[in-house]
Specification:
Layout (H helix, E strand, L loop, with lengths): L6 E3 L2 E4 L3 H12 L4 E5 L14 E2 L13 H8 L6 E3 L4 H14 L2 H15 L2 H12 L10 E5 L2 H13 L7 E5 H7 L9 E5 L3 E2 L3 H14 L3 E4 L6 E3 L2 E6 L2 E5 L1 E4 L5 H5 L9 E12 L9 E3 L4 E6 L2 E5 L2 E3 L9 H13 L2 E4 L5 E7 L6 E4 L6 E5 L5 H16 L19
Parallel strand pairs: 1-13, 2-3, 2-14, 3-10, 5-19, 6-16, 14-23
Antiparallel strand pairs: 4-9, 6-8, 7-8, 11-12, 12-13, 15-18, 15-19, 15-20, 15-21, 16-17, 17-18, 22-23
Length: 421
């Protein structure tokens, strides 16, 4: 007689099929582990779907809290296109913002940069490894991205910042208006110059890339099932998760749920100070034969245009609001006219804007590694705008930890222990 609720047994359960979870599943599989990947949706359909497609090798300094009062006031009063806040939500995150501000002091930011560098500097090469295995190297664009400016003051300030990064060995070009239009002929003279960061790579469909990695995982015998992460339970020395009418059981479980990671960890007694920064995107058609060759960030306009498979993706900056509150795509409404000033765009392709949430921790480092209160519980989340960038290298580091291998870098900066009292 067949049991009505057959169990699925594995060595490891990975909860979350975004770029981090899929990468962790692949790296564990490469090291001989039998892995079941669980998500309530398909691979790459949440936060990993909606980014700008940047593998940000040049982002060697984390995104810190602004230190000048004028910028802080502009953000607080919602007078900026790149940052918007729901004032009703701000009182709930004031302790987080205070800690974020403290961690952004020059000395602390320098330490954060040093801790993140081993991950950042391997970001492109680790993607290349997985893309080669998955037959997806043709999607990788090694052309970098362009930071563009409308004012000479903004360009001069950015050029000074770029010069300060020369010890990191980054490759970049300072562009005047003429040189900028040689590289992006269809951009308007509204942009007076820019910086071309040449070390990063880009992909034209980040959600599709994650699906390609998930396909590789399954082709190699990995199992991907639909399930609800909040059904996670510890059963003796094993962990269980319900998947429809079945139970998945393993000795180890990885929490790679991005902005939903705290919903699973909190009932287990882990209080991680995570805030989500929401963001929006919409695709537009270029006019006539207009072509965009690189992702272009309009720094003064507060948005990014990226050439994608579906068209030109207009992405916004940061919205501080509750993860699950209704969409308020005001930043798209404000930036779309500005985008039309710098590049010839037609109508929207998408019937509705897409919204996603970036999981951010106040010290600008992700959580990667073991949870100390529970045997077999592992974490990989909180990548602070760099989930796509750091997914594969995170997967490698976590898999090295979980299989007892020597890790390629010190694991301590990413430990969840730093938030444990």
């Amino acid at each position: 007689m067949t049991h009505p609720h057959p169990e699925i047994r594995a060595d490891v359960i990975v909860l979350g099929a975004g770029i981090v979870g899929v990468s962790a599943a692949l790296h564990l599989q490469m090291r001989g582990r039998d892995v079941v990947l669980i998500d309530r949706r398909g691979a790459g359909e949440e936060t990993s779907h909606g980014n700008a497609g940047l593998i940000e090798r040049s982002s060697v300094i984390p995104y810190g809290f602004p230190r000048d009062l004028r910028t802080v006031l502009r953000y607080a009063l919602n007078r900026s296109t790149d940052v918007r806040s729901d004032w009703r939500f701000l009182p709930r995150i004031l302790p987080w913002l205070w800690q974020f501000w403290r961690e952004s002091a020059p000395g602390s930011l320098k330490k954060a940069a040093a801790d993140m560098l081993p991950l950042i500097e391997r970001s492109v090469s680790e993607h290349e490894l997985l893309m080669a295995e998955a037959g997806l190297l043709g999607q990788l664009r090694r052309t970098g991205w362009i930071e563009a400016f409308r004012s000479r003051k903004s360009l001069d300030q950015a050029a000074k910042h770029a010069a300060a990064l020369e010890p990191f060995g980054l490759h970049f070009d300072i562009l005047d208006g003429k040189t900028l239009r040689q590289r992006e002929p269809h951009t308007s003279e509204t942009l007076i110059g820019g910086i071309h960061w040449r070390d990063p790579a880009t992909v034209p469909d980040p959600g599709g890339l994650v699906k390609g990695y998930a396909d590789l995982f399954q082709q190699r015998g990995g199992r991907f099932v639909q399930g609800e992460a909040r059904t996670l339970r510890q059963d003796g020395i094993e962990w269980t998760v319900r998947s429809r009418n079945r139970v998945v059981r393993a000795h180890d479980v990885v929490i790679a749920l991005g902005p939903w990671s705290d919903t699973v960890l909190r009932p287990l007694g882990y209080r991680v100070p995570m805030v989500v920064k929401r963001g929006y995107h919409v695709h537009l058609r270029p006019q006539a034969d207009a072509v965009l060759h690189h992702p272009v960030v309009d720094v003064d306009g507060g948005f990014l245009l990226a050439p994608m498979t579906r068209g030109i993706r207009l992405t916004t900056g940061v919205e501080f609001a509750h993860r699950d509150s209704v969409q308020t795509p005001l930043q798209l409404e404000r930036t779309e006219p500005l985008a039309r000033e710098i590049f010839p765009l037609k109508d929207r392709i998408d019937p509705q804007p897409w919204m996603g949430a970036r999981p951010c921790l106040p010290d600008m480092r992700p959580v990667i590694g073991a949870a100390p209160k529970h045997k077999g519980l592992w974490c990989a989340f909180g990548h602070n705008h760099h989930g796509l960038t750091l997914g594969p290298v995170t997967g490698r580091l976590l898999a090295e930890m979980m299989t007892g291998r020597e890790t390629f870098t010190d694991r301590r900066p990413y430990s969840i222990d730093r938030f444990m009292s």
